[in-house]
Every structure is written in C-alpha cells, then in structure tokens.
Design a protein that fits this description.
Distance between the termini: 39 Å
Structural class: alpha/beta
Shape: globular
Number of helices: 9
Number of domains: 2
CATH topology of the largest domain: Rossmann fold
Number of strands: 12
Length: 225
C-alpha cells in the first residue's frame, strides 16, 4: 500500500473543510503525499481554487459555508466528468447517498475520517486515474492527460501548454458542442476574461498537435471534437 501511495506525488489535490483543527491536520497529511495541495475553508473559495488550478482530486467536507460539498461537486461536474471527488460527511441519510451516486464520486466517507479510510479512498483514486489517463483520438492519435501531451501514430509527442491541455480535456469529455462561456470558465478561469481572438489563436495552435479536422468551430456557439 505504501509503495502504491507514492504515486500520489504525481498529482494535485484540493481539500475543503471549514473546521480549522481538522483542516490543518488533514492538509498537513496531504502535503506529505501529493505534489501540490490547495486548501479552502468554504465551498465558494474551493470552487474558485478548482477553476484556477484544476486539481486531479477534490476532497471536500459536506457541510461548509457557501457551497456545501454536494453543491461544490455539482458545480465541478458541470465542467468536468473526470475530476475525481471524495466527499466526507457525518450524514448517512439516503438523500445524501443518492446525490453522491448521481455525482459519480470516487468515495463517500462517513466520519470519523481515519487514516485507513483516507488511504483506501486514495488507492481508489489512483486506480481510476490509471484507467482514464490515455484518451484515444481519431486516426490513431492519443492524448495522455497525465503527461499533458498528444501522440501521433508514429509515436511523436507534442507538449501541450496549460490552456491547450485544458481545452482538449474539456472537449474530450463532452460529446457535444462546448459553448464559449464554458471554455472561458474552464480554460481562462473564474477571474479572467477571454477574447475571441485569444480563443481562435489557442484553437489554431492546438490543431497543430492533433489530427487534421478534429477540432471544429461551431459558428456563434463554441467548439467540439
């Protein structure tokens, strides 16, 4: 188990908890495990941190000021189906459990949160991550989400910029046209405005690292694969 958890050093995590003592203890533990840890004491700040940093994993308490844990998970799911989410709760109410199922959570942990419970949830996160990291694109191209690269049929690798990676990740998750507003929120972040010229340039550069014709612009609406 210890060797398996060493792989967590390749990933980032967002931890949201309003109780200060618990937040400090768990965040210190996570800092020893993960490459980077972002910490919030309420749901609204957690959502802004998510949009800014796009962590691989979100661990959230269910009862917090602002957005609660379920509401936070719902907002994240509007943007990403692949971000893994662990919810920690004192509730075993059926309504909460059903909400958790609908949100495709990695784990719903009932308090008290122990190191054993956390480690089991993190092992599941790693297993899921291994399954999802390679996306098959058209014409034998591949997208490696963890390495932030695309790979052509000859094995040549193309390194993606942060914005290129976010855009491709968003498009690859949605089997539909992604609106300009969704792209602005996910790629540019909560506090930054996106210009149409900047988006066109981003799409142009991304297309150079993908099979021809894969990224399509839908007039006055957005983009899709």
């Amino acid at each position: 188990m210890k060797d398996e958890l060493e792989k967590l050093k390749n990933y980032t995590v967002l931890y949201a908890e309003d109780e200060s003592g618990t937040r400090e203890n768990i965040s210190e533990l996570l800092k020893m495990m993960f490459k980077k840890v972002f910490v919030a004491d309420n749901g609204d700040d957690a959502y802004e941190l998510y949009l800014k940093h796009m962590p691989d994993l979100v661990i959230t308490d269910i009862k917090m000021p602002g957005l609660d844990g379920i509401e936070l998970a719902k907002e994240i799911r509007k943007i990403s189906s692949s971000t893994q989410i662990i919810v920690i709760s004192a509730y075993t109410d059926v309504e909460y459990m059903l909400s958790a199922v609908e949100l495709l959570l990695t784990r719903y942990i009932v308090k008290p949160l122990t190191e054993t419970k956390l480690n089991k949830a993190l092992e599941l996160f790693l297993k899921n991550k291994e399954k999802r990291k390679i996306h098959e694109l058209e014409d034998s191209w591949k997208y490696d989400e963890d390495k932030h690269i695309t790979i052509d049929p000859e094995g040549n690798e193309y390194k993606l910029t942060k914005k290129e990676d976010r855009l491709l990740k968003l498009l690859s998750e949605k089997d539909r046209t992604v609106t300009y507003k969704e792209i602005e929120t996910f790629v540019w972040g909560y506090d930054n405005a996106m210009s149409q010229n900047a988006l066109r340039l981003l799409a142009k550069n991304l297309r150079k690292k993908l099979p021809e014709g894969l990224v399509k612009n839908i007039h006055a609406t957005g983009y899709r694969l």
